[in-house]
Amino acid sequence: MAAARGAVRQSRRIFDIFVAEVPWTVSSKELKEYFSQFGSVQRCQLPFDRNTGFHKRYGWIKFSSPEEVQNVLQKDSHILEGAKLTLRQQQSRRQLQPKRESM
Q1: Contact by Cβ (8 Å): 16, 89
Q2: pLDDT tens-digit series, residues 10-42
C-alpha cells in the first residue's frame, strides 16, 4: 500500500510554470492555447474566487518536457489581451525542502 501512495505522489508533480497578471477576461482554454505554441501543454489551471466568480488572475501551466518549459522562458515577454504576463519557473518540492542532516 505504501508503494501505491508513492506512485500517486510522483504523479502529482507540481506545475512547471506559475503565471501571474492574467487578464480576468482570459479563460484557461485561451491560456492553454497561447502556451501550446511552445510545446504540448498537459494541464492549465486558473483558480476561481467563489465570491466574485472570476479567476484570481494567476495560474499554473504543466508541459510535457523540460525543453518546452525552456522554450517559454526564453521568450522575453508574453502578452495576452494587451497585458504582460509574469512567469516564474516552479521548483520541485524536493528542491524547496532543506536537506536533513543525520545525527
Answers
A1: yes
A2: 444 567 999 999 999 999 999 999 999 999 999
C-alpha cell at 21: 497578471
Task: Report the candidate in 14, 26, 57 with the shortest Cα–Cα distance to residue 35.
Answer: 26
CB atoms within 10 A of CB 68: 21
* Spatial separation of the C-alpha atoms in residues 25 and 9, rounded to whole Å: 33
Q: What is this structure's pTM?
A: 0.74
For 86, residues 6+ apart whose C-beta sits below 8 A from its C-beta are 19, 20, 21
Instruction: Using alpha carbons, list the distances in angstroms from residue 76 to 70, 71, 85, 92.
Output: 12, 11, 11, 24
Cell triple for 19: 503565471
CB 38 within 8 A of CB 84: no
